[in-house]
Specification:
The chain has 162 residues and is an alpha+beta fold. Helix content is 35%, strand content 17%. β1 and β2 form a beta hairpin.
């Protein structure tokens, strides 16, 4: 390791081999068809200025990033999300780097939740989440209901098999 420029900067010795994280998401983040990251872009549905900005951003993302999956424009809360939003899925680290850096500049007054997709939905939306702008409180009871439904369905499947 050598210093470069000043006492605060070090230059690492180059090996010629890049980290695998440039190509695939780190385990346990999914690299499958669900997408490795969800990006939720929020707007207050009662605020006409925010709604207009969000709709224009949604359209712009659809045009500038056609390779990304973008969901419909919700005009009311859905799931654990306390206000209206739309969602974008990112499938590769390259998409993550390109889109998130673009969104930092273009999100305007909107809050954004970025979370990985693993097998732990609630943890993905809380401990593993990153926010741009104001952090919004999520309705975490949704995840409890999802777990209860899953347990009920698994019990039914077990009964049917016996």
């Amino acid at each position: 390791m050598r210093k470069e420029g000043n006492a605060y900067c070090y230059v690492n010795e180059q090996t010629g081999v890049l980290s695998h994280a440039y190509e695939t998401f780190t385990h346990p983040i999914t690299n499958g068809p669900r997408g490795g990251f969800d990006v939720h872009i929020y707007h207050f549905q009662g605020n006409a200025e925010q709604s207009t900005y969000a709709r224009a951003l949604w359209e712009r993302i659809r045009r500038e990033f056609p390779e990304l999956r973008i969901y419909r424009f919700f005009d009311k809360p859905i799931g654990p999300h306390p206000i209206a939003m739309f969602e974008v899925n990112l499938f590769t680290p390259a998409q993550f780097g390109a889109f998130i850096s673009w969104l930092v500049i273009h999100r305007g007054p909107l809050s954004v939740l970025i979370h990985p997709n693993t097998e732990e939905e609630e943890r993905d939306h809380t401990q593993r989440a990153t926010w741009m702008g104001e952090r919004l409180p999520l309705d975490l009871s949704v995840f409890k209901r999802m777990r209860e439904t899953q347990v009920t369905m698994e019990a039914k499947t077990d009964q049917e098999q016996n």
